[in-house]
Amino acid sequence: MMAERSSHAFAALAVILLAVVSILPTNLATPDVASSRRLLQSVEEFPPNCVCERNLSSSPFRLIPSSPSTIAGFSGYCFKIVDVGCNSTSTCCDGKQGVMKVEFDVEPSCKSSVKRVTLDRMPYGAWEFNAALGTLRVTSLNKTAKTAPGTEICLFLSNRANCTNLGALCGNCKYSIFNGGRDCCPVGILIASPLSPNIVPAFSQPPAPPASPPPPPPPSPLPPSPFPPSPSPPSPSPPPPPPPPAFPNCTCVREPEASRWSLSSTISTEPADGGLTSICVNVTTKDDCDATSGCCAFTLHKVEFEVEPTCAGTLIAATVNGLRASRTFQTRPYPAIKVTNLARPFKVNEWLQVCILMRAPCNTVAALGSNKDNSITVGLFSSPGSTPSCCPIYTAS
After folding, report:
1. Can you tell me the mean pLDDT for 92-106?
2. Is 152 within the bounds of a domain?
3. Do residues 192 and 63 make contact, with C-beta atoms less than 8 angstroms apart?
4. Sign of the C-alpha dihedral, residues 368, 369, 373, 375?
5. What is the DSSP letter of 366?
6. Where is this region: Disordered (predicted)?
7. How far is it, in rounded angstroms, from Cα 106 to Cα 25?
8. Is the dihedral of CA 280, 285, 286, 290 positive or negative?
9. Looking at the DSSP assignment, which residues form a beta bridge with residue 135?
10. What is the C-alpha separation between 320 and 337, in angstroms, rounded?
């Protein structure tokens, strides 16, 4: 009888355990639909589609908030790269790693809100908002281990768009800093500086003591002699003009890794007929690209140079592989020299030498380029109306 009761008890316990086990997988597999994308995305998943060292202690570089930049109609948020030291046993901490790009983990719906980016308070064109991956990339920084610290990146959000502040754009703002080889990509979180210990929030301050009664007023003095009227105060200085639109002022895929079209980092200059100077860049190809970008092998329509607007009128001609090419100098919506109507389908090992013939005073790279550092920012563009619109941005010097 005891054996029979034990058998029945064991069977009942087994039924209960099976019921519990059958419930567990369903509960564990059901996600919270109200959770945001960033809460679901672990550090190992950001930056996306990358094989690199994400451990923050492996790299010396961090991103910290800096003083904001003010432009009418925009909210500007600025961040500086700092060197805080790192784990010397890591290959990403050998003292030779620079900074090639910075990526932010952002909300895809904020794409239309980010209108411009500056680098060290100057307009900067090498950035891309990839809504499909929820990533904002600021690329082609080309900073060495010595020049990276102190580099400042500012993001400008339109006050008329749906994401008007940093919290809406990226929450706590997860970021990643890439080296030139893209095998080091430490991931961190932007943390605002804490309040000073001497600052007490208003809601926690003790109530002020009641004010003492005022003393009786003194007797009224004799009226003074009238003074001559004071001169009018000087008119306030007008606000500084906003920086020019970023290059290029259009919505396109700017990431160099998105295309197999590439640009040599070297600019060549040589004398030309008529006292002109030929300033040339070499468009080349590479073997790999981000296959998800849609821009791997687009037809090359034009090459744009970011230039000083004061150089209008100094562009005389343009050539592609020695043959005359269509060219134009535009000043609005952003200053640029365009060598257009190239109609070059992508081919492996393609090589194009694109030259612009300039006269003084803009016949040097230093005078022509807007970077103020003997370099020029260059964009390679797909045909108008192409989907997606491609414009990988490079810097040549």
Report:
1. 93
2. yes
3. no
4. negative
5. H
6. 202-249
7. 31
8. positive
9. 105, 130
10. 14
